């Protein structure tokens, strides 16, 4: 296939990247990972060019951070204007209008026909940490329930809430107390013989039993759920499961928190992933694509819950920085003006249809799933036993990188290809990227056959 957008030299990584890698290994701890052995020089839309002139189609989007594309003109314009005015004053010292404006807009678009208030912060993990603080303050309870395979961050509390031990938790304990992990559905890996409906009944029953066997509901402050699990493998729960968990929360005075760090802002075809499930969260955490690459996060919540904390108990030095606020306001404009929610649905349909067709030729394709353009393909050794095929997944990612596509894996077994391309990607760029994935899959399968 001729390449219109992606172009990688056969000697990749190039001279400049190798020199920077050498410096990187001397100065940066090995605990900071990287997906591809090169360094960015420029990025625009869905394309990234490295320091040696290699150009990649981006199917990663900084792990779901670049929904509106790299360097969107409206985001850059907003940032330039703000830099010329002032860079930072600290909202808790001298306030600025953009913080208030962003809070107003987030409150307006968030699900729930009730008064809301918004706290702005820096990172996704910080948003989840503060959601926990706010929930505990309001309920006067300590218990926090998250779910198996969930990912919520790398701080002490959010690392505790996260499931995947390696690489996120191994030898970093002891962990925070009063955190409990409930079962979360994984329809593809349900017990043999169970229909999806029967399996959902079973998981709902297990969640209710969890509140009898593992933790008393009257001690639980919040249940924190990803509406579609990100790092856990882009696993989509059944609508009835989410609604039953929500109802149990309401019955027991437990706050329902939707972690939208990766699923938010048009990624699933909605502003918030939880909108697919017709429930109204008490608290919502946001970050990643809200800022189009500028660090910002937030907690959106019922006004009475958000107001329980006293002055000085929430916030931080850089929380809701002017640059982050201006970038986020531009992002919200772009999503609305360019119809990115609708575009996300179209992208998802194209990706899933492509892999449904490919699955006719490759029995290593076990499952194809997702909401909107938050799509994933799970690779297995065979479709009967469904044994995870981590080795093949890693090879596909490496082959894709060499061919000019940024691609990452996910899942607790490391066997899921995840797709987080900028939603502004063109049809031609999307087609070329999918063709590279197909070529990479074919080459990887052949390599393993020849071993």
TrEMBL record:
Q: Which cofactor does it need?
A: pyridoxal 5'-phosphate
- UniProt-listed InterPro entries: 4NH2But_aminotransferase_bac, Aminotrans_3, Aminotrans_3_PPA_site, Class-III_PLP-dep_AT, PyrdxlP-dep_Trfase, PyrdxlP-dep_Trfase_major, PyrdxlP-dep_Trfase_small
Q: Which domain of life is it from?
A: Bacteria
The reply to whether Transferase figures as a keyword in the UniProt entry is yes
Keyword check for Transferase: yes
Name the PANTHER family on file.
AMINOTRANSFERASE CLASS III, LEUCINE_METHIONINE RACEMASE
Under NCBIfam families, the record lists:
GABAtrnsam, PRK06918.1
Q: Which family does it belong to?
A: Belongs to the class-III pyridoxal-phosphate-dependent aminotransferase family.
Q: What is this protein called?
A: (S)-3-amino-2-methylpropionate transaminase
